[in-house]
Amino acid sequence: MNELDSLVESATQLFAQSATPADLENAKAQFLGKSGRVTELMKGMAQLSVEEKKSRGAAINVAKQAIEAALTARRQALADAELQVQLKAEALDVSLPGRQRGQGGLHPVSLTLERIQGIFGSMGFDVAEGPEIETDWFNFTALNTPEDHPARSMHDTFYVEGGAPGAPNLLRTHTSPVQVRHAVQHVKKHRALLDAGQPMPEIRVIVPGRTYRVDSDATHSPMFHQCEGLWIGENVSFKDLKVIFTAFCRTFFESDDLVLRFRPSFFPFTEPSAEIDIQFQSGPLAGRWLEVAGSGQVHPNVVRNMGLDPEKYIGFAFGMGPDRLTMLRYGVNDLRLFFDGDIRFLSQFQ
Ligand code: PHE
């Protein structure tokens, strides 16, 4: 092997040993750089004759081209290897299932509230809302629950700044204050009729919303939902309550196999008062009495606070727990699941 051949071979070897592009450029400089070995050979031709220069120059050029070819090949090989590493690192498994955009849906309690509104809407009930921060007057006093009334202690709640001296505003403990708020508006709207001694259109309304009490366990949450119902007219009786509430429960639970019981109870704002219990005659809950609402004939003092004459206007109210209705409908045994925000639980209702 002549001198030039071994030069090409040692260049090729050094290129092959260069593991990175930077190493390779250094190796290149040793052969093709300004003071590289090929350049030195070119310089060494200065003393040769023209004939010798010709043949020697051609031979060196052949060697130089071989070294350049080896360099280009090695550069390509290093680039290919780098690309392989990158492709491997960024590999996509196209056989994996796609990630779909999550589909939102209504919360189970919202589904229940919609259902309640739909059913009572079909029976001619309007829907009203009221503030969650309530005055002492609407939450208690207007509902015939004066200060120091023992019933207030069952409604321990969260008090906030503002309100009258000695009667701070509070997070409402039930939706009943909206009975009075709504009735007052209704009376105002129909003042002219009342003044003329003409019959006022009946008040028929339901009030869904959030309520608050200092309570927390598997069946009580400090924030919970209620849905109030109110029907006031000149000739509305407990019988009507029984009819509409029975119809409501049967529609809500999609079962005619269900009976109601009115169990005497006490609320300051109704007289007489009753808890409404339901019992399924078949299915997993059969045979147990389940409390679903409080109810009663609106107390004359409350009717008066609505701006109406209790001698003329009479009616009933009820307050049910949509959270509890949701638990019964779907067989959920811990109320807190509704408010933990766990998507694995919530997505089951879509
Ligand atoms: N407001 C009562 C409660 O929260 C329920 C109720 C409403 C009772 C209307 C009677 C009439 O306990």
From TrEMBL:
Q: Which organism is it from?
A: Acidovorax soli
Domain of life of the source: Bacteria
Q: Which ranges carry the Aminoacyl-transfer RNA synthetases class-II family profile domain?
A: 124-340
List the Gene3D superfamilies: Bira Bifunctional Protein, Domain 2
Entry keyword set: Aminoacyl-tRNA synthetase, ATP-binding, Cytoplasm, Ligase, Magnesium, Metal-binding, Nucleotide-binding, Protein biosynthesis
Give the protein family.
Answer: Belongs to the class-II aminoacyl-tRNA synthetase family. Phe-tRNA synthetase alpha subunit type 1 subfamily.
- The protein's name is Phenylalanine--tRNA ligase alpha subunit
Q: Main EC class of this protein?
A: ligase
Catalysed reactions, as listed in the record: tRNA(Phe) + L-phenylalanine + ATP = L-phenylalanyl-tRNA(Phe) + AMP + diphosphate + H(+)
EC numbers for this chain? 6.1.1.20
Question: Any idea which GO molecular function terms this record carries?
Answer: ATP binding; magnesium ion binding; phenylalanine-tRNA ligase activity; tRNA binding
Relate the assembly described in the record. Tetramer of two alpha and two beta subunits.
Q: Which residues form a coiled coil?
A: none
Task: List positions binding Mg(2+).
Answer: E271
The entry's localization annotation reads:
Cytoplasm
SUPFAM superfamilies to which the protein is assigned, alphabetical: Class II aaRS and biotin synthetases (SSF55681), tRNA-binding arm (SSF46589)
What the entry lists under NCBIfam families is as follows: pheS
**A GO-annotated cellular component:** cytoplasm
Question: What's one GO BP annotation on this UniProt entry?
Answer: phenylalanyl-tRNA aminoacylation
Source gene? pheS
**PROSITE patterns in UniProt:** AA_TRNA_LIGASE_II (PS50862)
Cofactor note as given: Binds 2 magnesium ions per tetramer.
